[in-house]
Structure formats: C-alpha cells, structure tokens
C-alpha cells in the first residue's frame, strides 16, 4: 500500500502545495533496430506511443529518454526533433525508455484548478443543502480523497485503493498546516507553502499512515 501524492488548494482554486511521495515505476527501456516497430505521434508537446503495445510499452506512454539521455518534450537532449532522430536509419540501434509522462508544475496547477471547479459543481448538484462536495474519487489504480476546511482550504491525498486511514491522515495534515504554516509569521494566507517544518512533519505523517499507525495525542 502507498500514498502517492498530497495537494493543498486554496479557496480560490490555486495550488499552494504539492508533494509527490511515491510514484510506481513503470518505465520500460528497450533497444530497437530500424525500422521502429511502434507508431509514435506528437501529443501535448511530447512524443507518445499511438500504436504497437509490446513488452510493457503501452499506448499513451511517452518517450522519456533516448540512449540514456532525458528527452525534453519533443526534443532530444541535444535539441534534435525526436521523430526526425528516430526516422533516421543511421541512428540505429537505439535505446528508448518509455513510461508515463511526469506532470509538469503547470499541469499540476491546471489540474488542481479543475478539481476545485468539479468540487463546486458537486456541491451545487447535491439535492441537500450544505453538501460537503466531492470527498472521494475512485479508480482501479488509486483513490483521490479530499477534505475541505471551514475556510475553504482543500487537502487532497492520492493513495492506493487499499490504503486505510486516509480520513485520519487528512485531518492530521490539516493539523500540521495549522501548526507549521498558519503559525509561521513569514507565511501569508492563500500563498504557496514553503516551510521546512511543514515538509518534515507532513512526510512523517505519510510514513505513519502507510504503516497504518494511529495518530494519537501529540503524534
């Protein structure tokens, strides 16, 4: 079981804190001869597999590295177009690492804002007055848990579907936020959280939750 990431969103929908705690490794690296037996296409400023799943390489996986050098979107480490490079027989054999695209900072900001909007829509669609909004979204690979405070701050945790104790963890994160962000004289409300003690105590709380330990008084 694992906790993948934590997001803190202010009442205006802005992402003020994000931590990637654990990311399952699903990268696959293979050496190919010419011609490449996968169909690659540009998508959202990166090169992805459009057809030809094989050996752990899935449709939608992005090209992450070529010959051990990290790829920057649609370009190789030395600035060459990835599709042009892979279309040249002189560059083979070539080693390519595929995997899930890592979200950029801008993409995380955008997704946090989108969830904020979905949360508001969920509250408005409720047949009962005073709905708490979206508290959990479930997929086959993770669950998104959300806790909104009375002041509108949202704490979100993405975790393995089998992970227990998330409700207690969310409230523990709120407690850590109150103790190490709000009481920090250098912190301004609604602004990004940059506090070493907040980071340290949050990571400790995640480790405790993953081990299914209780959050007792003073923990």
UniProtKB/TrEMBL annotation:
Which SMART domains does this one have?
Sybindin
The family database entries (SUPFAM superfamilies) matched by this protein are listed as:
SNARE-like
Q: Which keywords does this chain's UniProt record carry?
A: Cell membrane, Endoplasmic reticulum, ER-Golgi transport, Golgi apparatus, Membrane, Postsynaptic cell membrane, Synapse, Transport
Its protein name is: Trafficking protein particle complex subunit
- Quote the subcellular location field of this record: Endoplasmic reticulum; Golgi apparatus, cis-Golgi network; Golgi apparatus membrane; Postsynaptic cell membrane
Q: What InterPro entries does the annotation carry?
A: Longin-like_dom_sf (IPR011012), TRAPPC (IPR007233)
Similarity comment:
Belongs to the TRAPP small subunits family. TRAPPC4 subfamily.
Q: Name one GO cellular component term.
A: TRAPP complex
Query: Could you describe the subunit structure of this protein?
Result: Component of the multisubunit TRAPP (transport protein particle) complex, which includes at least TRAPPC2, TRAPPC2L, TRAPPC3, TRAPPC3L, TRAPPC4, TRAPPC5, TRAPPC8, TRAPPC9, TRAPPC10, TRAPPC11 and TRAPPC12. Interacts with SDC2.
One GO biological process term: endoplasmic reticulum to Golgi vesicle-mediated transport
Q: What is an example of a Pfam family matching this protein?
A: Sybindin
Role played: Core component of the TRAPP complexes which has a function of guanine nucleotide exchange factor activity for Rab1 GTPase. Plays a role in vesicular transport from endoplasmic reticulum to Golgi and autophagy. May play a role in dendrite postsynaptic membrane trafficking.
Q: Which PANTHER family match?
A: TRAFFICKING PROTEIN PARTICLE COMPLEX SUBUNIT, TRAFFICKING PROTEIN PARTICLE COMPLEX SUBUNIT 4
Report which superkingdom the organism of origin falls in. Answer: Eukaryota
Major place of residence = endoplasmic reticulum
